[in-house]
Amino acid sequence: MMARAPKTRTRVPALDAPRGRTGMLNRSPQPSRDRFGRFTEWIARAMGTPWFLLGLSAFCALWLAWNTLLPEALRFDAAANGFTALTLVLSLQASYAAPLILLAQNRQDDRERVQIEQDRQRAERNLADTEYLAREIVALRMAMTDVSSQAVTRDVLRDELKALLEDLDARSSGEPDHVTAEREQRRRRADRREKAERDARER
């Protein structure tokens, strides 16, 4: 009877661990795709400084002095030919510097375009928030006005009902006319006071 080979159990990842966490940790870091863009910006930034001009001038002066003052055996660029090698080096430097500067400018333009788009979106959000707040404030003011007008109407109705009840009581009890007149004057003064208070609240 043949022995069974032990089964290899596949390890089930824990449910509390994020998916793909192990693979992300074991993954080798990828080089940044934007490294060349940063390099071009560094070149353009370095070429726009006084130190680059001083270094280039010192390099040219050393080249000319080496090929002019030293013996013939140590010279590598003849002055009789107009320093052809120096001219070639400077031409190569200029031909490579111009595209690098253009690449850096394009990168800067792309960054400014993205920044302008983000500023525009932020301004639109701020405008929408401002309009929303303005509408909410107007709605609150209208609601407060409605509530105050309803409260005033209830007070006036309550006072009118009180006055009518007092008149009915006076008529049913048979009070004299001067008592009824005094009560009517008091009611009118109360109405004027209520009206003044209402106008003050509306203002």
Task: Write a brief structural summary.
This protein has helices spanning 21-26, 35-47, 50-69, 84-173, 177-202.
Characterise this structure.
With 203 residues, the protein is mainly alpha-helical. The protein has one domain. It contains 5 helices and no strands. The chain has helices at residues 21-26, 35-47, 50-69, 84-173, 177-202. α2 (35-47) packs across α4 (84-173) and α4 runs antiparallel to α5 (177-202). The chain is rod-shaped, with a radius of gyration of 47 Å. The model is unreliable at 12-18 and 20-25 (pLDDT under 50).
Number of domains: 1
Briefly note the structural class of the backbone: mainly alpha
- Average pLDDT level: 76
Q: Radius of gyration in whole Å, from Cα?
A: 47 Å
Share in helix: over 70%
Question: Unreliable stretches, pLDDT < 50, 5 or more residues?
Answer: 12-18, 20-25
Q: How many strand segments?
A: 0
What summary fits the major beta sheet?
none
Percent of residues in β-strands: under 5%
The end-to-end distance, rounded to whole angstroms, is 105 Å
Coarse morphology: rod-shaped
Q: Could you give the order of the helices and strands? A: HHHHH
Q: Helix segment count?
A: 5
